[in-house]
Write the C-alpha cells for this entry.
Amino acid sequence: MAKEKDFKISTKEMEKAGVYFGHRASKSHPKMHQYALGVKGGDHIHIIDLEKSAQKLKEALEFLQKSALEKKNILFVGTGPGIGSLIEELGKEAGYPYVNLRWIGGTITNFGVVKKRIDYFKELERKKSAGELEKYTKKERAQFDKEIADLQKKFGGIKSLEKLPDILFAVSMKQDALAIREAKKKNIIIVALADTDVDPTLADYPIPANDDAISSVKYILEKVKKAIIQS
C-alpha cells in the first residue's frame, strides 16, 4: 500500500501564486469573513488569511489522499475561463473523471439518463473503431463523426463513470454552482475552492482561495495531484 504523504504548505508559495486575492468587499459573502484578514487598496479587495487557507488546504489534501488510497472515485469540475485545460490535464494524468467545458444539468441528479448517453457515445466510438460505420454513405459517416465530436465535448471526461462519484472537487463554487447543488442533493462529499464571494459552508472541505487567477488554481491543483497520484 502506498505511504501517506506529509503535506507541507508554504504560505510564501501561496502568496506568490496569488491565492490570497479575494473579491471586492462589497461582493463578499459574510460566511467568508472568518477567512479574511481585511481589505486592501482603493478597490477594497478582500485579502484571504493564508494561514487559515493553508490549514484548510492541508485538511482537504489529507482527505483526498485517504480517499484515493481507498479507491474512492473523485469527479473534478472546472469550467471557468482558462481552467478547463488544467482540469483535463489533472483528470487524464491522475485517471479520474472530469468536466472541463460545461456542466450538463442532471449529470448527478439524473445520472441514469446521462449514463445511457455515455453508453451510446462509447458504442458509437466502438463501431467507428471496428469499421462498422463504413457501410454507411459518406454523408451519413460525416453525421456520425459530427455526433461523436459533440458527445466527446459533453461526455468525454466522464466516460469512465459507471456510478455516481463519491466526491466532487470543484474549482469555483460560483462558476460550478449547479454541480455543487446536484452533489449536495445526492449527499456527495464536496471539496471546493472558496473565494470571498461564496458561502464556504456549501462544501464539506472548503479551501479559501482565489479561484479566478490561473496561478492560484494551478498551485492548488498541483498539490491535489500529488495527493491523489500514488507513488
User: Anything to note?
Assistant: The chain has a mean pLDDT of 92. The radius of gyration is 20 Å.
